C-alpha cells in the first residue's frame, strides 16, 4: 500500500518532466511564473484537492495546499520544496519533496486523521533562479526576510519581474505579503534528493541532514610577468599559471588529507592573461569555492587557503589578491527535529546516516522562520541538474514512511 504512494510520487514527477509542464519538448525547463509553471500548478491543485487539501496561490506565486488541523487556530507544520527547475534539469530535484508532501497528506486523509497542527505543503516558485537573476526569492518571501525588493530584474527575453507578476495575475509589490507569522509555524520539513554520491557509495537510501554547509567563494588574482615562452629560462620566470596550478593542487591535497567529512574545495573557473600558447601567463584569475559543515571548520580552512597562497606566491615571486565574493554561514537543522527524524528512520528499519548538505535549499531560508529538518533521498550515480537524474522507488517509499512516522512522532511530542 505504502509502495503505491511512493511509486505515485515518482510517476508524478515524471509526468511533470514533460510538456505542457516543461517549456521545452527536448528537455525539462520550468522557470518561475512561466506557462509551464502555471500548468504544473493547475495539475498540483488537482492532486492536492484529491489528497484532502484546500489550495491557494500566495502573493509570491507559490502554490500552497493546506490540510487543516483539529482546530483552526493551531500551529502549522510546513512541508515544502521547489517547483521550478534549471534548464535541462531533472524531474526529481525539488519536485519530489512536494510530491512526498502530497502523498503523506493523502495517506493521513484516507484514515481521516487530523493533528493538533495544520500541515501546509508549499510548492516554492523560485529556488533555482530559473528565470530572473535572483534565487530563493519565494522562500525568502515566505520566511519574511525579503526586506528590500530586488529591482530591475529581467529574464533573458527582457521581461521584467513586475511584468511577469502582472501576467501571472499578481503584483510584485505585494510579494512580502507571502510572509508567514513565525509564531504560528511549528517547523519546516523538506525532503530532497541528495544530488551527490555519498548515500549511494554507502548503499543507504536516506540521510538525515545536519545542516546546509557554510560557504566562502574567493576570487584569487595572481600577478607575475608575461614573457616569451621560448626565451625566458625556467629559473627566471614569474609564471602566474604555474603558481595557480600549484595552489590548486596544494589546496586539494590539504582538504583531501584533513579527514573532515563535508569539507570540500573547488576551483571551477580560471582565466589566464594574455592567454596565448607562446606567452608565459602574466596574470591568472581563478575561483575557490570552499564549503564545510560549520562556520568554524570553514574559517579554519580559509586560514589554510591564505597560508598556502602566500607561501607559494612568495616562493614564485608572484603578487596576489584574495577577494571574498560570497560569504554564507552554515544553516543548521534543529537538534530536536533531527532526533525525531532519527527515531522515524529507525522505525522504518533503515540505517541512520547523518549528512551535511553541500548545496543550498529552501530549508536554509526557512530556518529564519522556524526550526527546520531535512531528509535526503539517495541520488543514483550522484547525478542532479541533468536529465540523467533519477531515484529508486524503494528509497522514495522509505522516505515517505519516515515522513509519516515523523509527523506522528511530532504529534506525540506536542
Ligand atoms: Zn533542489
TrEMBL record:
Pfam families: M20_dimer, Peptidase_M20. The keyword Manganese applies. It comes from the Bacteria. Keywords: Hydrolase, Manganese, Metal-binding. Its cofactor is Mn(2+). Residues 218-315 form the Peptidase M20 dimerisation domain. The keyword Manganese applies. NCBIfam families: hydantase (TIGR01879), PRK09290.2-5 (NF006775). Homodimer. Belongs to the peptidase M20 family. This is Allantoate amidohydrolase. It comes from Commensalibacter oyaizuii.
